[in-house]
Design brief:
heterodimer, A: mainly alpha, Rna Polymerase Sigma Factor, Chain: A, Arc Repressor Mutant, subunit A, 2 domains, 9 helices, B: elongated
Chain lengths: 179, 155
């Protein structure tokens, strides 16, 4: 905790800011990339969102009060950026969210940076049949290995509700894959 | 040494390039767990050296020099905006004053009057057109007047 507050101080101090930001990028770039990638699915989109996320983090650091952990705050920015990206895409294409999911899943098959087999593709289909909140909880808990307390801060939902959503999501995915 | 003895005595062998591949596999397994999980479980991949390149791009885009340029010109921009607003205000005021100028008003009134005269003459002469605009209550009165003027007096 002391280490983190010192690190945050370094991030805010104009003299140490640049070095500290490079360290932050080293530590969290991959984690945030994979977090974003699971939401937007395509590499090119994830790349755009990742860059926007770090630009927002950089801009927002002077205002960061430390009410939540630094990484939770960054995950929240990444999460919001991803959702905003998908919303923009949906509006631009003038299609519903379901249609957008189908479109992205179709593009994922053709994506050179998707090397998954049939089962892995089916898993993506299964995850994408879930309602938004269940989908996000499942991804954050199962793949990002975030604690329910952290997910609760990111999604601004109670831990009890998240645990229930995660349980239901797991059951639905199992059922989908058994079909 | 013991290992070598086992290989030699028991006749164990390994595929070609095994140790090289094994080294890569071990190095891969030391990468962050989330990356591995995403790659193995989900089948996602990234271009070669993506994270190194991406880091450079991100650092370039948040370079402090860009920020300092913005702050350097921020005050200039503010003054520029104030001057532009003043000019705009002057234009608006002068336009309003010119509309209040007596000469302009006369010209406008005159032209309007001319327009009205033209219209009214046209209107007055055109009885069918006039009848459209007349209220029902006055139409009878108008017809009486028309009959008196045009039919009786013209005789």
């Amino acid at each position: 905790m002391i280490e983190e507050s010192l690190f945050i101080q370094n991030l805010k101090d104009p003299k140490t800011k640049e070095k500290a930001f490079t360290k932050l990028l080293d530590q969290y770039q991959q984690r945030l990339y994979w977090h974003i990638r699971k939401i937007v699915l395509l590499h090119e989109d994830a790349n755009d969102v990742l860059q926007n996320t770090f630009i927002k983090i950089h801009k927002g650091l002077p205002k960061f009060k430390g009410d939540s952990a630094l990484h939770t705050w960054m995950y929240r920015i990444a999460y919001n950026e991803s959702l905003s990206f998908l919303n923009k895409k949906q509006k631009m294409l003038k299609i519903s969210s379901e249609e957008l999911t189908t479109k992205i899943l179709g593009e994922l098959k053709e994506d050179v940076y998707f090397e998954g087999n049939k089962i892995q593709y089916q898993l993506q289909q299964a995850i994408n049949t879930l309602p938004t909140k269940q989908k996000r909880v499942f991804q954050m808990r199962y793949y990002d290995e975030l604690k329910f307390s952290e997910i609760s801060e990111i999604l601004e939902t109670s831990q009890g509700a998240l645990k229930a959503s995660y349980h239901i999501a797991k059951k639905k995915i199992e059922a989908f894959l058994k079909q | 040494m013991k290992k070598n003895t086992i290989y030699n005595k028991e006749g164990f062998s390994v595929p070609n390039g095994y140790f090289k591949e094994n080294k890569t596999a071990i190095l891969k397994s030391t990468e962050p767990t989330i990356t591995n999980k995403s790659k193995t479980d989900l089948g996602f991949s990234t271009p070669n050296k993506y994270f190194a390149n991406s880091e450079t791009t991100i650092l370039k885009s948040v370079k402090p020099s860009n920020t300092s340029i913005f702050y350097k010109y921020k005050s200039t921009f503010k003054y520029g905006l104030a001057i532009a607003a003043s000019i705009l205000l002057l234009i608006v005021i002068s336009t309003n004053f010119s509309s209040l100028n007596p000469n302009t008003k006369i010209v406008t009134t005159l032209s309007k009057k001319t327009e009205t005269n033209l219209d009214s003459t046209l209107f007055y002469k055109n009885d069918p057109l006039l009848s459209i605009y007349l209220d029902d209550n006055y139409s009878e009165e108008y017809l009486d007047e028309f009959a008196l003027e045009d039919l009786v007096f013209s005789e």
